[in-house]
Amino acid sequence: MTQVVEAPVKKLGKRECARIYKEAYAAGLKAGKEVGVPKFIVGDAIGLSNEIDFTKKTYVLEGLCGFAWINISPARGAFVTYLKSINVGGKAYYGGYEIWVREFGQSVDRKEAFAGAFAEVLRKYGINASAGSRLD
């Protein structure tokens, strides 16, 4: 019977962790900016109709409001240590280490794209990461 031996994972130094974080962040920004989100106009209705009274204050919203995050599990290793050293993220309620997406205001679509791209870059370097989101 042949045994399969996994190659040892290369230990990451602070410089490599900084480079990975920078790459993941840039990928997240790019993905978030490329999202085409619907626009909603919010304002007071005219009487009981479904028409907006544009003589009163109105708002244009970029899609739905919500939150997104990246979860790294388990919450240990050189990359998590690096994140702690630069005060990014924190211990996740359900386990792991979470980085909340603070970019793109309240747009859940843009935040989800950011988190997904960020996590994808981390996985490329052997870091177990996933993206999550929820509506507000």
Write the layout of secondary structure elements.
Layout: H1 14-34, E1 39-42, E2 59-62, E3 66-72, H2 78-85, E4 90-91, E5 97-100, H3 108-124, E6 129-135
Antiparallel strand pairs: 1-2, 3-5, 3-6, 4-5
Helix pairs in contact: 1-2, 1-3
Task: Give a quick precis of the structure.
The chain has 136 residues and is an alpha+beta fold.
Name a few traits of the molecule:
4-stranded antiparallel sheet, two-stranded antiparallel sheet, alpha+beta, 136 residues, 21% strand
Tally of DSSP helical segments: 3
Which range does the strand content fall in? 15-25%
- Oligomerization state: single chain
Unreliable segments of 5+ consecutive residues: 4-9
* Share of residues in helices: 25-40%
Give the termini distance in whole angstroms.
54 Å
Q: What is the approximate shape?
A: elongated
Run of helices and strands = HEEEHEEHE
For the biggest β-sheet, the strand order reads 4-5-3-6
Structural class computed from helices and strand pairing: alpha+beta
Count of extended strands: 6
Radius of gyration: 20 Å
Q: For the residues shown, what is the average pLDDT? A: 89
For the biggest sheet, the summary is:
4 strands, antiparallel
